[in-house]
């Protein structure tokens, strides 16, 4: 079955693949060939004395080639960064070099066991140590933990260290965290999870932190200010030094959400801005394909006064003084657990080491100049798209942005009732993943666009062409947009129903039909 998108690319078609249960036919299965001369035991014999099923499980019956082809066809239905463009603001979805995956797959890394002796894992510990030093050079901080499993996890670790610091320095009554409305939503959730009351700070008319509003919100009860810089509007905080000065004068610490670090690495460092604690999304900024919940890594770097509170263990370097040692005068690496003020372990063992390997390979391969170029290209690409789209779409903050910018579908909604969601759905017909929509919340009908540094001008121009065609359709044939997507395997499901009554298992057709009829009656 196939269908062409009205007004869209002619070569995009819908491929419908039945459920594997629907493809099942009795007796279709792979051949099981026993090894000659080997005595086998039945399942009943192997499981003697234990509870057994009264009847065999209802599993699909297919030959091996049918199974392989089925799942391969399903994989082709998924959009992926290796297939098409992801202009996904708020979450960097860029192409990552395959050599980094290859390096992370080396047996020396994949076959490690977390309980191996330190003497047997010196290479991995050295890599972790050098990665930490590289991250500190990029951020301008003092020390870092590589344990946290993701950005939100890193946020929580950072705020727990803030809480521990205030507890030890007479600030136990500091129960409030200030979060600008341009911050990532996880900031508010993280502060709340750590037991703080959250005060949301409205942005100025320029989309930035208003110094007067910040000064009024700060008090002797403020524990921290959580900032994203550049913020989720893609704007750099012009008054960042004054922001951190005001916070520190009030006795508060300043937390830096490093999700947008890819816009400034090599150009500006959070430590030089006055930040006290920084998390980094290695799986966004420093090369790991991510999505679907993982894998990730969110190292947390701190200034000197928060260093005692870092999670344990930490990787440390020591110099071998014994000339007769295996590595005379050379560096050896070990794990430090003796950290009395530490907030404790926050992750099983040492973190997602595979992600750390990829990040290390990425940073070593690019070097300082390469990281700087990546930031410059990300900013250039975002501004190119902003200028090319601003005549068709409202851009509330239409000035030089960083790695991303926020457009709005307010004009299209007013003209024909076409929303940001409709535009996002229509983009799927062009083989382009939707940008983030309806975030940040302070822009109506927000479309948050981040092209990343890895896309060519041809790709960017194709995205612009699609967006301009959608605008044209909005004004002349809005039904095409309102009913999109037209060529995807799944079109417009009832998302509320899917969330509240998800179908998580297959049932025989008769049972499924009965459920449908019951739903229709109710």
Question: Can you put this structure into words, describing what you see?
Answer:
The chain has a seven-stranded mixed β-sheet with strand order 1-7-6-5-4-2-3, with helices on both faces. Strands 10-12-11 form a three-stranded antiparallel β-sheet, covered by helices on one side. The two termini are 32 Å apart. The mean pLDDT is 89. The chain is built from 19 helices and twelve strands. With 522 residues, the chain is α/β, with parallel strands linked by helices. Strand 4, helix 10 (240-249) and strand 5 (253-258) form a beta-alpha-beta unit. Helix 4 (98-104) packs antiparallel against helix 13, helix 7 (151-168) packs across helix 8 (185-193) and helix 13 (353-389) packs across helix 16. It has helices at 20-23, 43-46, 64-77, 98-104, 107-110, 122-139, 151-168, 185-193, 211-217, 240-249, 270-273, 282-285, 353-389, 410-416, 420-427, 457-476, 478-482, 495-500, 509-521, and strands at residues 143-145, 176-180, 197-201, 222-228, 253-258, 277-280, 300-302, 314-319, 331-336, 405-408, 436-437, 446-449. The longest helix is centred in the last third of the chain and has 37 residues, at 353-389.
Comma- or semicolon-separated keywords:
522 residues; alpha/beta; three-stranded antiparallel β-sheet; 11% strand
Please, how many helices? 19
User: Compute the gyration radius: what is it?
Assistant: 27 Å
Quantity of strands, as a count: 12
Annotated CATH architecture of the domain at 99-363: 3-Layer(aba) Sandwich
């Amino acid at each position: 079955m196939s269908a062409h998108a009205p007004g869209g690319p002619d070569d995009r078609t819908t491929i419908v693949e039945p459920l594997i249960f629907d493809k099942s036919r009795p007796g279709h299965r792979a051949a099981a060939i026993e090894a000659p001369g080997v005595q086998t035991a039945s399942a009943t014999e192997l499981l003697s004395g234990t509870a057994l099923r009264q009847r065999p499980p209802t599993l699909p019956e297919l030959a091996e080639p049918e199974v392989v082809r089925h799942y391969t066809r399903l994989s082709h239905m998924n959009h992926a960064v290796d297939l098409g463009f992801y202009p996904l603001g708020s979450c960097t979805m860029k192409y990552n070099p395959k050599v980094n995956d290859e390096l992370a797959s080396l047996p020396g890394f994949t076959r490690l066991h977390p309980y191996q002796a330190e003497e047997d894992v010196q290479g991995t510990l050295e890599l972790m140590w050098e990665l930490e030093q590289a991250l500190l050079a990029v951020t301008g901080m003092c020390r870092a933990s590589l344990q946290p499993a993701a950005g939100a996890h890193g946020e929580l670790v950072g705020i727990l260290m803030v809480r521990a610091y205030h507890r030890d320095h007479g600030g136990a009554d500091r129960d409030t965290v200030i979060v600008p409305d341009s911050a990532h939503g996880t900031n508010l959730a993280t502060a709340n999870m750590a037991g703080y009351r959250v005060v949301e700070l409205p942005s100025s008319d320029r989309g930035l932190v208003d110094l007067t509003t910040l000064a009024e919100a700060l008090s002797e009860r403020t524990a921290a200010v959580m900032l994203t810089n550049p913020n989720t509007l893609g704007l750099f905080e012009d008054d960042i030094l004054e922001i951190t000065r005001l916070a520190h004068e009030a006795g508060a610490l300043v937390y830096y959400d490093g999700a947008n670090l890819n816009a400034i690495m090599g150009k500006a460092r959070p430590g030089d801005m006055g930040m006290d604690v920084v998390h980094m999304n290695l799986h966004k900024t420093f090369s790991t394909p991510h999505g679907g919940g993982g894998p990730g890594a969110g190292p947390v770097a701190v200034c000197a006064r928060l260093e005692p509170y870092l999670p344990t263990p930490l990787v440390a370097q020591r110099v071998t003084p014994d000339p007769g040692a295996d590595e005379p005068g050379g560096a050896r690496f070990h794990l430090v657990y003796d950290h009395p003020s530490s907030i404790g372990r926050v992750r099983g063992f040492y973190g997602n080491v595979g992600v750390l390997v990829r990040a290390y390979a990425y940073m070593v391969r690019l070097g300082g100049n390469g990281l700087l170029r990546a930031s410059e290209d990300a900013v250039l690409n975002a501004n190119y798209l902003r200028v090319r789209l601003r005549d068709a779409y409202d851009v509330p903050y239409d000035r030089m942005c960083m790695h991303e910018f926020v457009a709005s579908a307010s004009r299209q909604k007013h003209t024909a009732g076409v929303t940001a969601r409709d535009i996002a759905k229509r983009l799927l017909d062009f083989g382009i993943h939707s940008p983030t929509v309806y975030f940040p919340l302070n822009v109506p009908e927000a479309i948050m666009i981040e092209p990343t540094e890895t896309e060519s001008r041809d790709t960017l121009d194709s995205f612009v062409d699609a967006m301009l065609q959608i605008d044209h359709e909005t004004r002349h044939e809005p039904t095409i947009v309102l009913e999109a997507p037209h060529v995807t395997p799944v079109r417009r499901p009832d998302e509320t129903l899917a969330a509240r009554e998800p179908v998580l298992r297959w049932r025989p057709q008769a049972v499924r039909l009965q459920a449908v009829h019951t739903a229709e009656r109710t």
